[in-house]
Amino acid sequence: MKINNIPDEQLESQLKYLKLLSKQYPSISSASAEIINLEAILSLPKGTEHFLSDLHGEYEPFVHVLKNGSGVIKRKIEELFGNIVSEVERKKLATIVYYPEQKLDLLVKEEEDLEDFYRITIHRLIELCRYASSKYTRSKVRKFLPDDFKYIIEELLHPDESSTHKDGYYKSIIETIIEIDRSREFIIALSKVIQKLVVDRLHIVGDVYDRGPRPDIIMDTLINHHNVDVQWGNHDILWMGAASGQKVCIANAIRISARYANLDIVEDIYGINLLPLATFAMEAYKDDPCTEFMPKVGEGEVSTKEKSLIAKMHKAISMIQFKLEAEVINNNPDFDMKHRLLLDKVDYEAGTINLKGKVYKLKDTNFPTIDPKSPYKLTKEEENVMEKLVASFKGSEKLQKHVSFLFSKGSIYLIANKNMLVHGCIPLDSKGNFMSMKIKGKEYSGRELMDQMDSYARKGFFYKEGPEKQFGMDIMWYLWTGKCSSLFGKDDMTTYERYFIADKKTHVENKNPYYTLREDENICNKIFDEFSLDYEQSHIITGHVPVESKKGESPIKAGGKILVIDGGFSRAYQGKTGIAGYTLIYNSYTLQLVAHEPFSSAEDAIKKESDILSTSVVVEDIARRMYVRDTLDGEKMQEEINDLKMLLLAYKKGLIKEK
Of 222-236, 367-381, 511-525, 536-550, which range is least confident? Predict the structure, then answer.
């Protein structure tokens, strides 16, 4: 937009807004300076985006991949020092960048000339930092710099190479850092700046939570990240519902944690009091071996006595869950889930269940808490357990902080730089039409349905009390398990059948037709139309369903329009996938998929300088290098520039006075 082309009527119609804007830019000079600044930023190459999904609580490989920039830091070290520094020294430098505190603690004991080591390392890190920051403005880099060393690092990153007058000045800075014993702190600061510079924006495409040991560490890492968004996964929404006080979500979250002997995350990390559940379970199931509810753990990981207690708690909370589901399903007929009410299909005397006209023998027939005449009614003891669990989940400060972050930085789906990010799928019927569902008497499908579910989930967490909150909490449970949920992507969750029926035909959970139709480019284009995406440049980026790489399955679908990036960060899926996760990297030149090999441990990475072995495949070469002006952020900046140009004209025409 050229200033002289702005019509008077447009200027006058925006005058109220421009007067507000003038408080931020009170003069022609301040508005002009910001226009020049923003126009310059638009001409910079776009920052590098990293996409990861299905972390499932596996914090160690995730944290390492974040520290090494999915291999980007190692590649930059190779590009800078490959011909002048030995491989041993390059590996050492990379490890210092990834784990500066821990690696320096080891190196200071080994280095014969510590001052010389510090001197060389600081010079190399400055050069690496300069290289990594080359596509950013000084002001943006400045935001990444720690307060203690902001001025010093900025001076060293931008030396006057056209003159030799300041050579002594730059040398003096480094020598003084070493002399006053600040080398360790300075190296740590530089390393963390480099880590931030190689990942401009981080996208987590769902499932921070599940069976892995420490989702809380992942959450804390994300909260401290400089630029991140999260597309909710089915396991995330389950914990979000639990934090909101939704009883069925609470029961599910505890059941899964018990199933994998991961109750530490509930009790020790989030401070949820499980004593009432444990006391109740030991009493109700004291003579029950709870064989079908033994936790899935490796040999020797958990003692026999502890396994027995967990199994009893596991069965107790599972039976509570099956009862609680009835209330939600009956209160929400539009969920179309009455077929999932199974407790009244059981013949408790015969120990059988009638499913779809066929009778099956139950593997477990001990149900001391069920009244066959009212199988969905909680006992007084079960009600007491749930009341205390609800209070504990809602009162967990750490869990509330993590879930608040998921709402503030997350959504069901996200459109980012012409790419659509969604954890599971876009629910379709067998004919390729968007699945529809009634919400509050109105039929929704496609984008509108996902938007409605997103909105109600927020009400379920943020509203204090009332029917809107309750429905929002119920929607969160539906997102965990409902057939029209883009997070779940199946027709049913056969939890009861898996526990109680031996016939595996009853365990089948059919995937949404999307998963077969997604290879059809016409179907992809239909989805693109629904979400206002570009046929040629857009992609759908999902996780949720592990890609069986070892069987030759490709994560690239529909001629490159769909990218599935669940490669098995969770150890439980690595036998199936054959790898240990994907990172999708989108820089100004290419879109590339990085496959990671299994990560041994952070301790090995520090001591042995072992890294995650990663291989890259270029999914797409960008025909023309992308700049900030080509991104969503660039579009917003252009709007700011246009507004500032109108403000500038208003100043010049005297419609607004400079202050």
Answer: 536-550
CB proximity list for 233: less than 8 A, separation 6 or greater: 53, 54, 205, 206, 207, 208, 209, 423, 424, 487, 543, 544
pTM above 0.90, yes or no: yes
Q: What is the DSSP letter of 363?
A: S
Instruction: Measure the CA–CA gap between 47 and 585, rounded to whole angstroms.
Output: 11
Written in H, E and C, the secondary structure of 534-585 is: CCCCCEEEECCCCCCHHHCCCCEEHHHCEEECCCCCCHHHHHHHCCCCEEEE
Which tokens is 286 given? 């004291």
- Residue 204 contacts residue 228 (beta carbons within 8 Å): yes
pLDDT (tens digit, 9 = 90+) per residue, 263-297?
A: 999 999 999 999 999 999 999 999 999 999 999 98
The answer to whether residue 163 scores a pLDDT higher than 70 is no
In this predicted model, what pLDDT tens digit does every residue of 520-531 receive, in sequence order? 999 999 999 999
501: which strand partners? 362
Over residues 645-651, the mean pLDDT reads 92
The residues, any chain, with a CB within 8 Å of residue 246's CB and separated by 6 or more, are 460, 473, 474, 476, 477
* pLDDT value, residue 479: 98
Integer distance in angstroms from the first to the last C-alpha of the chain? Answer: 25
- Strand-pairing partners, residue 556, are 563
- DSSP E strands, 130-270: 201-204, 228-231
Please, where are the H alpha helices in 43-149?
A: 59-67, 72-81, 87-98, 100-110, 114-132, 138-144
- pLDDT confidence of residue 579: 79
Least confident segment among 26-40, 133-147, 365-379, 397-411: 133-147
* Cβ within 8 Å of residue 143, ≥6 positions away: 226
Which has the closest alpha carbon to 650: 19, 1, 2? 19
| Runs of H (alpha helix) within 332-464 | 380-395, 397-409, 446-462
Between CA 242 and CA 250, with CA 246 as vertex, the angle to 5 degrees is 45
DSSP state of 229: E
Q: What are phi and psi of 108, to 5 degrees?
A: -65, -25
Q: Which amino acid is at 645?
A: K
Question: Reading across the β-sheet that carries 358-361, which strands appear in turn?
Answer: 346-347, 352-355, 358-361
Backbone angles phi, psi at 421, to 5 degrees: -110, 125
What token pair was written down for 4? 């002289």
CA-nearest of 278, 344, 346 to 314 is: 278
Looking at residue 1, its pLDDT comes to 66
Residue 361 pLDDT greater than 90, yes or no = yes
Q: How confident is the model at residue 162 (pLDDT cuts 50, 70, 90)?
A: low
466 secondary structure, DSSP code: S
Q: Please give the backbone phi and psi of residue 549, each rounded to the nearest 5 degrees, phi first.
A: -60, -35
Residues forming beta bridges with residue 359, ordered by sequence position: 354
The C-alpha atoms of residue 264 and residue 619 are separated, in whole angstroms, by: 40
Give the count of beta carbons closer than 10 Å to the beta carbon of residue 72.
21
| Look-up of token digits 């109740």 | 280
Percent helix, strand and coil across the chain, each to the nearest 5: 55, 10, 35
pLDDT recorded at residue 224: 95
Give one word for 261, left, alpha or beta, with left for phi > 0 and alpha for psi -120 to 50.
left
Q: How many residues does the chain have?
A: 659
Query: Which pLDDT score is estimated for 558?
Result: 92
Give me 83's structure tokens. Answer: 């011909």
Lowest mean pLDDT among 159-163, 224-228, 233-237, 398-402: 159-163
Please, what is the Cα angle at 401 between 395 and 407, to 5 degrees? 115
Q: From the centroid of its chain, how far is CA 563?
A: 16
